[in-house]
Amino acid sequence: MPVYRAPVENVLFLLQDVLGFERYAHLPGFEDASPDMLSAILEEGGRICEDILLPLNMSGDREGCRRAPDGTVTAPKGFKAAYDAFAQGGWIGLAAPAEYGGQGLPYTLAAAINEFATSANMAFSLYPGLTRGAQAALIEHASEEQKALYLPKMISGEWAGTMNLTEPHCGTDLGLIKSRAVRKADGSFTITGQKIFISAGEHDLASNIIHLVLARIEGAPAGTKGISLFIVPKYLPDGQGNAGARNGVSCGSIEHKMGIHGNATCVMNYDDATGWLVGEENRGLNAMFVMMNEARLGVAVQGLSMSEIAYQNAVAYARERLQGRALTGAKATDKPADPIIVHPDVRRMLLEMRAFNEPARALILWAALQSDIAHRSPDADERLAADDALSLLIPVLKGVLTDVGFDNTVKAQQVFGGHGYVGEWGMEQYVRDARIAMIYEGANGIQALDLVGRKLPKDNGRAVMAWFKQVGQAIKEAEGEAELAPLASGLKGGFDHLQKATMWLMQNALAKPDNAGAASNDYMHLFGLVALGHMWLAIAKAALARKHADASQAAEMDAKLIAGRFYMERIMPEAGARYARIATGAETIMAMPAEAF
Amino acid sequence: MPVYRAPVENVLFLLQDVLGFERYAHLPGFEDASPDMLSAILEEGGRICEDILLPLNMSGDREGCRRAPDGTVTAPKGFKAAYDAFAQGGWIGLAAPAEYGGQGLPYTLAAAINEFATSANMAFSLYPGLTRGAQAALIEHASEEQKALYLPKMISGEWAGTMNLTEPHCGTDLGLIKSRAVRKADGSFTITGQKIFISAGEHDLASNIIHLVLARIEGAPAGTKGISLFIVPKYLPDGQGNAGARNGVSCGSIEHKMGIHGNATCVMNYDDATGWLVGEENRGLNAMFVMMNEARLGVAVQGLSMSEIAYQNAVAYARERLQGRALTGAKATDKPADPIIVHPDVRRMLLEMRAFNEPARALILWAALQSDIAHRSPDADERLAADDALSLLIPVLKGVLTDVGFDNTVKAQQVFGGHGYVGEWGMEQYVRDARIAMIYEGANGIQALDLVGRKLPKDNGRAVMAWFKQVGQAIKEAEGEAELAPLASGLKGGFDHLQKATMWLMQNALAKPDNAGAASNDYMHLFGLVALGHMWLAIAKAALARKHADASQAAEMDAKLIAGRFYMERIMPEAGARYARIATGAETIMAMPAEAF
Questions:
Q1: Which of residues 147-166 of A touch B (CB under 8 A)?
Q2: Which of A86, B86, B173, B371 is the most exposed place for a label (fewest CB within 10 A)?
Q3: Is the Cβ of B486 closer than 8 Å to some Cβ of chain A?
Q4: How many Å is the Cα radius of gyration of chain B?
């Protein structure tokens, strides 16, 4: 049985010591997030994930979802009761507006709880996750009437939600969408078409499912400018706002996937279904883009979540598994062999995970805080700066955290040897589950293109210049402090490469866009190396302060400092290789004729 | 349905143009391997893999193996007929000695066919693979009587074989083995114990299964020096050499694994089973080590095989899937979108695989050729040099080819987007299947330790110095040729780092073994980068010669040269990062207290 302890203390340390959470007490919702309250909510959230979601993770994977011939889908055993408990605890609507029944707490807090829930049971956490995504779109774009009708039931968890974008012939390229919408006399629409890869598309956890569907109104312009967003409920609301007659939407089949078996990934068929336009006609993609930051941040969290639980289990195993002797002579002389944690290469694998997880968590919380500021600050400049920073970093977080998170699950599995390959210990499930996060919500190659093609040049580079300035200042300040100087020097090495790479893109990608495409993946990862390193500097600074203030915490803080040093010594050197690749340009990549591959 | 074409032409090019196969016509078995014969055998071998093994790959994965309550195991549908065809075609005994019914052909040829079979169906290919492994141990260590009794039936495929090493509490550390052997009056032994993770431990493909089992004879010394090797047949041979009475060995359960579902991974219970000692008492580990080179090379092949079939399918998909437009403007203007192979980042992923597969194949064939030379050359110096080179490179091939091969299956899956995550296209199976190769036959961390701890210092570095000399000479020769100089320069960059890293190990690892352990993984991968780069130089040289000799092959040869350039520009830069990590030493890694992870 896999182990998992929600990293509550680490979240509190990052929020309070590293990110200065208390500075935002003036924002709406933050006034209820006093240190005591914060701690209590995180503890309680961690507990439900450990006690209720975790025990269903392996069984959910093995059982999977079942579709009956009538198109209904049953989630794995125990999921319904867990969903009810999760909903009743108020966890789905933690950060949702109080006027619709939410708790109105900071989104930052919801992001932390989301990490715990995903570690404990990624397949499960997608159900409330998709509902929250649909909520977010409605909050931004729906009419007051639509909000009043749908939001309270979705926030309470009584109704669930989904996002329907992909079709068989189009995933990334939504301009190719074929699903059709025909206007009816009463202002509603008839929706026809097929959607695929719809997570949580059909299930038995909620009494109704509110599908948000992209479709093309007849006569709309071709391409992305002719796509509209519709609400298509599984059961049509009756006059009283309750689920009424069945709508013409059904699950045609569920996919057999590599992982996240506990979540139903559906082919959804819309046969003359009734739908209602959300927001403006032909502006459906826009409506999607607005909520993309949070959706992508949610997927970035999955990378961290899988890395964290995989790490915790690998550490536990490495402490217990006896095999071989330390290279420097036997350590556990009373035992037939030493625990494998004595071996440098096992420690290397563990430290690679550890040195990622903490700054990745810091980045997630930082990004969620930017989202809170961007939505809730009374100061327009502050809102703009937060939105700039968040938009810039979102593709980095989504792409890098899911890539590295997946790699870390593979590493954690390796610590188990053959026992990692069999189902018994649960390690191979993390690998299979984590893999999807690199693909959905914009495959990581798309994130990289979003970064180099849109986010960097946006507003003449305003966001990237502001962020670079922050990183540069942090380095400068740390260089003067003896205990931080080695970390600052490591970060500076990576940052220099990032700046050179950015300059290279400015000089070489405008005239030759293929140079941007060929550099994009390495640039995104180089950016991620520096962003994580930047967080390490902040973490180390806070750790030193705590250590000096309270000697009883010295051992715990020293462990952070060791992990930070490891990051600079052994992870940051990748920056040089990333830069070297970027600077070779696109020539060789484009030289190969398509038929010669 | 996945596509696969056995890379017969490439094997011929590598054998003939790059490795100078014809120079070895004087070795036994090679005289039958004329160019025409070589080509005919490879074509025929490729065909059986494409036509018979490939169609059973996905179905075998979905169906898996089934164990009946009586302990018998049924392989997936179609496997038995395929096994019969494979055996009857003589493919199991292709390189086995003619005196026992084998074809006595070069092992190099068998390695090439093994690549094809593994690409087509990795789970299937383990059945003959394990049989060949057991054969090899018997050929080296069994008595003449044992050889005469077992080998002909194993070479013909009538009987299968297995290797039984691992026990629940010991995988890497075989000194902990508990299985017991008690000598009986007739010279045979009673074997008792439990073995786990036994590939092909029980199945219905052959009429008998010959288990080779490591166990401890009562009174034997503790640790690795008290382990002996035994033959334990499923059915005891009767007086006529046929399968007779059932022996006390049975399959207790089969594992639920991440992949290779078509192969039965068994818990094997030995309850007073009858066994016969192979070779000398207490020298069982030695007997295993002798055959380890070929077994590990066989696993290295799996890394290449999975990368190759994943690549072929990713290329096919990237040419057909229409999504988005080229960054430089629409290419397929008659279609709603361009094929995704126009995108630089898709090409990057494809080229990363391509730039690995060809030199990896060259290394495999080179290593197999060294094995042939080491076993068959009449010249003692030549045998020694070949054995030195093979032993040195084996951990590099096993560790690097399976690590990179796995990464490549992940990349190929990424090219498919969401379609790579569902079972339909077969891409996720390659990821799941390829994963085991990093673990079994010595986890890759063990390979890295074998390289730095045993192979490097062996005979005062004789092997590594000889190999470095070869690489250095190849660089020097190529530097003088204009068309090769850029590749030589790329290789030189990596080679310089490898030499510096080797020097660093000599200076820092003797006094502090943890420095060797902490460096081992990076050192192994750095070695692999240079070894693959070395092969690229040889491939490029041969490609230029062909191109200049025959203009009709220019396009094909140019594609090789582009892939080689890509390797040096975009893969070799990793060498710098690997060296930087090595040179940081073990201090930080060892500083973290075990309880602080």
A1: 166
A2: B173
A3: no
A4: 24
Integer Cα distance of B253 and B275 in angstroms: 22
Please tell me which of the candidates A423, A431, A569 has its beta carbon nearest to residue B588: A569
Q: Note whether A438 contacts B414, CB cutoff 8 Å.
A: yes
Beta-carbon pairs below 8 A across chains A and B: 261
Q: Which of A328, A563, A581 sits opposite B573 (nearest CB)?
A: A581
Strands (E), B18-158: 66-67, 73-74
Q: Whats the size of chain B, residue-wise?
A: 597
Task: Look up the pTM and report it.
Answer: 0.98
Report residue A42 CA to chain centroid gap.
18
Interface contact A513-B565, CB threshold 8 A = no
Residue type, B485: A
Residue B580 and residue B108: Cα distance in Å, rounded? 36
Q: Is A595 a catalytic residue?
A: no
Q: How far is CA B504 from CA A569, B508, B511, in A?
A: 16, 6, 12
| B 243-302 residues inside an 8 A Cβ radius of A | 255-259, 265
Tell me which of A99, A281, A441, A569 is the catalytic residue.
A441
Distance separating alpha carbons of residues B122 and B77, to the nearest angstrom: 15
Give the pLDDT of chain A (597 residues) as one tens digit per residue.
899 999 999 999 999 999 999 999 999 999 988 899 999 999 999 999 999 999 999 999 999 999 999 999 999 999 999 999 999 999 999 999 999 999 999 999 999 999 999 999 999 999 999 999 999 999 999 999 999 999 999 999 999 999 999 999 988 889 999 999 999 999 999 999 999 999 999 999 999 999 999 999 999 999 999 999 999 999 999 989 999 999 999 999 999 999 999 999 999 999 999 999 999 999 999 888 877 888 999 999 999 999 999 999 999 999 999 999 999 999 999 999 999 999 999 999 999 999 999 999 999 999 999 999 999 999 999 999 999 999 999 999 999 999 999 999 999 999 999 999 999 999 999 999 999 999 999 999 999 999 999 999 999 999 999 999 999 999 999 999 999 999 999 999 999 999 999 999 999 998 899 999 999 999 999 999 999 999 999 999 999 999 999 999 999 999 999 999 999 999 999 999 999 999 999 999 999 999 999
Residues B254, B269: Cα–Cα separation, whole Å: 12
Chain A residue numbers with beta carbons less than 8 Å from the beta carbon of B336 are: 176
Q: Is B174 on the interface with A (CB under 8 A)?
A: no
What is the distance between the terminal CA atoms of chain B, rounded to a whole angstrom? Answer: 45
Q: Which residues of B touch A318 (CB under 8 A)?
A: 597
Q: Is B406 on the interface with A (CB under 8 A)?
A: yes
Distance from CA of A515 to the nearest CA of B (A): 8
Question: Rounded to the nearest 5 degrees, what angle is found at the Cα of A112, between the Cα atoms of A106 and A113?
Answer: 95
Structure tokens at A171: 């995933």
Q: Are strands A235-237 and A243-246 parallel, antiparallel or unpaired?
A: antiparallel
Contact at 8 Å (CB) between A132 and A92?
yes
Report yes or no: B559 at the A interface, CB cutoff 8 Å: yes
CB neighbours of residue A468 within 10 Å: 16
Strands B265-278 and B249-254: antiparallel
Tokens 């290397």 identify what position?
A: A348
Q: Is A430 on the interface with B (CB under 8 A)?
A: no
Q: Do B444 and A513 make contact, defined as CB atoms within 8 angstroms?
A: no
Q: How many CB atoms lie within 10 A of CB B473?
A: 10
> How far is residue B562's CA from residue B565's CA, in Å, rounded to a whole number?
5
B563 touches A at CB < 8 Å: yes
A439–B422 CB contact, under 8 Å:
no
Nearest to A590 among B344, B449, B584 (CB): B344
Return the structure tokens found at A348: 């290397």
